[in-house]
Amino acid sequence: MPSTLNPRTTSYEFLGPLGALFITLGVPLGTYLLFFACSEESGGCPPTLVPAHIFAALSDGAWWKGLWDTQATLLYLGWYSFCLLSWAIIPGTYVEGTTLRTGNKKQYKINAFPTFILALGLTLGYIYLFGPQSFTFLNDKYPGFITASIIMGVVQAVACYAASFRPGALLALGGNTGNHIYDFFIGRELNPSIGSFDVKTFNEIRPGLILWTLVNISMVCSLAVRRGGFANVTDSLWLVVLFQGAYVADCLYNEPAIFTQMDITSDGFGFMLSVGDLAWVPFVYSLQARYLVFTPVKLGAVRIAAILLVKLVGLYIFRSSNSEKNEFRRGANPKNLKFFTTESGSKLLTSGWWGTCRHPNYLGDLLMSLAWSLPTGFRTPITYFYVMYFAVLLVHRQRRDDENCERKYGKDWKKYMELVPYRIFPYIY
Ligand SMILES: NC(=O)C1=CN([C@@H]2O[C@H](COP(=O)(O)OP(=O)(O)OC[C@H]3O[C@@H](n4cnc5c(N)ncnc54)[C@H](OP(=O)(O)O)[C@@H]3O)[C@@H](O)[C@H]2O)C=CC1
Ligand SMILES: CC(C)=CCC[C@@H](C)[C@H]1CC=C2C3=C(CC[C@@]21C)[C@@]1(C)CC[C@H](O)C(C)(C)[C@@H]1CC3
């Protein structure tokens, strides 16, 4: 029911209910498809399976049964419980989020980084004691883990959607259209919580993001087993695993930074975020590392240096632009950057990174994503899927942010767009 607190949403994103339905079916299918399109099981990357083989497999019940793995499901449940327990047990300070429409502020427990360190420590200790062959199961049982994580995502999305109809629930401004398919996909309730436990932030940065690093470590173990020890693991795989591990560590170390991001301040928690966080992130983002297990690539010093350069330039743009904005939002301006004050009282930077384009942090993030694919070489475009998907996601996200800011700042945002005409790539886009 629309109300003053929860007005009816009158516009759609993602091409409305049809687009939402397409992505709802496409994300789980795409997660499996990327596995079968790029794996040893289907003959490599790209696969060598001909359509006749594919139809034969699909009409075979045993193939479908292979998507379910009871052991993988139990291990996944164990992993999810570990994350929940760590959140509850590991001490952490409480930090306030942004002000909600109700005038209240949520309190979030900050202990994602110690959870990551604990998970990493236990995993590395286990590998040290029992050898690399003891930790290849995430790679060996990949489709089973995909299924388990999708089920977890769907169950949570359904539960949160049902719970969002209780009286008093604060809904996302974009998730109350009244169309069940669309609202279920985009997320109806803004901050589903159980007591002080916030479902959305927990899922966004813990069970999926940390699992991504563990899946990558499992790939290193798989290659170590194949090649007779960690010393023979290829430089390309080490590079991918270190780059992506550092990205995850950076996010978890800066946990409070996510409380001002669009997903947390504006989006509801629906299918997009639950299955995106729990299945898509760990099992699609680890594609490059998985590929490098069955297609080892030796880079050598020159190519490592070139890839490092791309990564470091990306990291520099990502970090320095985010710091400029974060410091400025905290009331500091150590570089004396130019800004103007909007009618709402909030200020917008017009020089430094935020004067070159409206989303310099996206540019840095994109460059880093390219550096995660370059180590796989150029034998297949499939290992560049992440870069392509990420470019589409960020272009779309930038447009959504422009719309949100226009709603927030009105004609002041138009003035900012005139002063800073480029969206992501200075002088290009
Ligand atoms: N790896 C992955 O899969 C993904 C990674 N990301 C990354 O997440 C990060 C966060 O992205 P996101 O939440 O989209 O957005 P940003 O962190 O870029 O924040 C956008 C907000 O910044 C404020 N802002 C915009 N322009 C200015 C300015 N000139 N001066 C001061 N403040 C300004 C506005 O909010 P206000 O004015 O209210 O402060 C605006 O809504 C990005 O680095 C992105 O690359 C995102 C999606 C997926
Ligand atoms: C269509 C589809 C597959 C949608 C799902 C999108 C989600 C996978 C992403 C939406 C925003 C995300 C963010 C991160 C991970 C991917 C999702 C959930 C993020 C946690 C990755 C780490 C970064 O440092 C981050 C904290 C900036 C980032 C926040 C947004």
From TrEMBL:
EC identifiers of the protein:
1.3.1.70
Its annotated pathway?
Steroid biosynthesis; zymosterol biosynthesis; zymosterol from lanosterol: step 2/6
Is the keyword Disulfide bond assigned to this protein?
no
Q: What class of enzyme is it?
A: oxidoreductase
Q: Which residues form a coiled coil?
A: none
Which molecular function GO terms apply here? Delta14-sterol reductase activity
Superkingdom as given in the UniProt entry: Eukaryota
Q: Alphabetically list the UniProt keywords.
A: Lipid biosynthesis, Lipid metabolism, Membrane, NADP, Oxidoreductase, Steroid biosynthesis, Steroid metabolism, Sterol biosynthesis, Sterol metabolism, Transmembrane, Transmembrane helix
UniProt catalytic activity: 4,4-dimethyl-5alpha-cholesta-8,24-dien-3beta-ol + NADP(+) = 4,4-dimethyl-5alpha-cholesta-8,14,24-trien-3beta-ol + NADPH + H(+)
Task: State the family named in the UniProt similarity comment for this chain.
Answer: Belongs to the ERG4/ERG24 family.
Protein name in the entry: Delta(14)-sterol reductase ERG24
What species is given as this protein's source?
A: Mycena metata
